[in-house]
Amino acid sequence: MKNQLLEVEEKLVCYHCGDECPDDSISIEEKHFCCHGCQTVYEILQDNNLCTYYDLNSNAGISLKAKNFEGKYSFLEDTTIISQLLDYQSENLCKVTFYIPSVHCSSCVWLLENFNKVRAGVFTSRLNFIKKELSLSFNPTEVSLKEVVELLATLGYEPLINLESTEERKDKKNLAQRSLIIKIGVVGFCMGNIMMMSFPEYFHLNLKNNIDATYQKFFLYFNFLLSLPVFFYGSYDYLYGAWVSIKENIKKTTNVFSVDIPIAVAIITLYARSVFETFVNHSAGYYDSLAGLVFFLLVGKWVQQITYNYLSFERNYKSYFPLAVKVSRAGEESFVNVMELRKGDTIFIHHQELIPADALIVKGKGMIDYSFVTGESDAVTKQVGELIYAGGRQKGERLELVVQKPVSQSYLTQLWNNDAFTKEKVMPTTELANLFSKYFTVITFTIATVAGIYWSVFNPSLFWNAITAVLMVACPCALTLSMPFTMSTTMAIFGRNKFYVKNQGVIQLLNEVNEITFDKTGTLTESNSEKVSYVGNLLGDFEVSLVKTITQQSAHPLSKMITESLKISNLKPLQVEYFQEFQGEGIEASISGNLIRIGKAGFIKSANREVAHTHAFVEINGICVGYYIVETIYRKNWQSILTDLKKSFRLFLLSGDNDADKEKLEPYFNENNLFFKQKPQDKLNFIRQEQQKGNHVLMIGDGLNDAGALRQSNVGIAISEDIKVFSPACDAILDASKFGRLAEFLRFSKTSLNIVKASFVLSLVYNFIGISWAVTGELSPVLAAIFMPLSSLSVVLFAVGLTHLFARFRKL
């Protein structure tokens, strides 16, 4: 009996995905599946001897409830669209790269890496797990692109194919990083070999015989050769930056000296003195210190450039639009790229599909969800002849539309034509950093000049030593090293806590913020999470059955939500004698001899009150018994978060939704700081007006409707349920599960900047001690060359160590 019970329990678990099986009707060799989709995946793996896939993780698969795509990928049969998607195309070989959002574990990697064993005609399959990009090569004569995509979707790894997929990839940042890594490699190689060749000098070995002297000269000149790529290639950016800054100051276009100038002076002084020692005094120079300095500077620069490359902060509407849509032209239907839509084209939109261009309805009933564009959560009813704006999502039957404007001129794309998207945000350092770089160069040259003049009069033999020692010791390491290392450490700590910032400048900008502007829907509230509640007379089982029966007849989103909220274990089917839907008003039906009507207050005449929230009154046999309201669910601890932030910032709410929650929000926002029914352009304009008043605004939102405001703000943070799938034009992405720690992140950004300032102080102490010693003429160039990289390294360790210490103290 016990074994039988265990067997029953095993039968209720899907062998592929681990979901609960509704029954034991779908099975293969005592392996049970929750649906035919999971069964199909198992059969594919079994036919190709890939069932070791299930040994990697328990329940490793991804559930797929159906494999009938109903023409979803038919556009992949069009040769024009295929050529736009392929990276390479020939008669017998095609290459393509797909973004696969559902990749999440080692089982996914294993299965996709073995995809060529699943389908004949696929040559290679390589997955970049970090970027979730799958690179495939296949033979188009054996398998089509459409078949490849459908098979991936059947396995549960549906590729994300949108309008942005066809655009040329821009890898300028990757090329710049690659160039920097090569420089680090070259300089690191030279540094290691220079140090190895300098061992006799380090240990003061006396090389008296001719053979040893010959080797000593070889090491001397070999170090000189190794220093050439360090000086001319590794330090080129700093030398060129200093030259540009000097030219700009000569032309009077700026009065700020670049921090590259003192760095370049130190590099040139080290190199010139080393060359002098090599060819004039025939003694060892300071090539090891030169290579070490340049190496540390390049590593700091590399750390500064590193960001979360697998996150995209620059996506626009093309990331969300479908690649192709079915169009009727001259009586013929075909798929075309949405960017090729013209005025007058007839397009077909199905349930849950996004409308790519402003268009008129010519056939069908529209229930358009504009939350993607405006933030308004209520679906809008549209009749034949009415205009639908691009970005709306149809919820209901198939629509036939006539395009009024091409995609590039639609209402939605007007947002991306705004100046906010054409101008790059200025990422400042800090006022202290500007002052530091401005005066450091002048002070260094002044001290070196004064020291030189003094020793030229009183002891000319110390003239050269004093000048070169001052120029070699003085180095603005706090600005060039502590800033990138501290900020990159802060970025890593934030990333560990699921708060991803675009670059180090964002952390600095967060310190200047004095106002925070929130969107409501999807930001303060949970995305796609609504609670349906009933208010009114207590309904018996029969009345509840009447309500569920009538709402089941309607495709309206509110009717569907009411249907799903009514949990009736033994619902008896009732006779529907009559049913009619009044678009935008309500529904009416005669069920088992009872007249039931559900809808707005104007439609239900017996309703005697208005309700602020999305609602539906219920009338049974002429009596209004109550109403259903739909309320959004606010994020956990949202009140305490706003209360905490209100202590340090002015808070504003810009919502595209109605003002139903105004009373709930007023305690946390001043009454004049609440704005509802705001369009995307309204949000952008509001932030711009605040900036013109001298305020620094942090915008926190989600969705495409907030993209303009996020871009216009000084710092834009996008709240996302899935940080790798959704990322509009923002400066940072905050995982929705970490919304409660927003105030802590803002405070820690201030802490990190204070650590940089402390590093400045430490660097000034080092420079004061070193320069004081150097001007005496008693600091040898050797000690000066050692002192400079040592001080730089200690400042870096101080900054990074202190950052980690404070992060641990704050439990980040």
Descriptive account of the structure:
This protein is an alpha+beta fold and 812 residues long. β5 (122-128) and β6 (133-138) form a beta hairpin. α12 runs parallel beside α27. The protein is elongated, with a radius of gyration of 34 Å. The protein starts with a helix and ends with a helix. Mean pLDDT is 76; it is low at 1-11. Belongs to the cation transport ATPase (P-type) (TC 3.A.3) family. Type IB subfamily. It comes from Emticicia oligotrophica (strain DSM 17448 / CIP 109782 / MTCC 6937 / GPTSA100-15). It is a multi-pass membrane protein. The chain crosses the membrane at residues 180-199, 219-241, 253-272, 284-303, 435-456, 462-481, 755-776, 782-807.
What structural class do the secondary elements suggest?
alpha+beta
Low-confidence stretches: 1-11
DSSP strand (E) fraction? 15-25%
Strand order in the sheet with the most strands: 16-28-27-26-17-24-25
CATH topology of the largest domain: Rossmann fold
CATH class of the largest domain, anyone?
A: Alpha Beta
Mean of pLDDT: 76
The main β sheet shows up as: 7 strands, mixed
CATH homology superfamily of the largest domain: HAD superfamily/HAD-like
Radius of gyration: 34 Å
Spatial separation of the terminal alpha carbons: 52 Å
Under the CATH scheme, the architecture of the largest domain is: 3-Layer(aba) Sandwich
Assembly classification: single chain
Q: What percent of residues adopt helix (DSSP H or I)?
A: 40-55%
Please work out how many helical segments DSSP would assign: 27
Outline type: elongated
Counting DSSP E segments of at least 2 residues, the number of strands comes to 28
Number of domains: 6
Keywords: Cell membrane, Ion transport, Magnesium, Membrane, Metal-binding, Phosphoprotein, Translocase, Transmembrane, Transmembrane helix, Transport
Subcellular location: Cell membrane
Protein name: E1-E2 ATPase-associated domain protein
Membrane topology: Multi-pass membrane protein
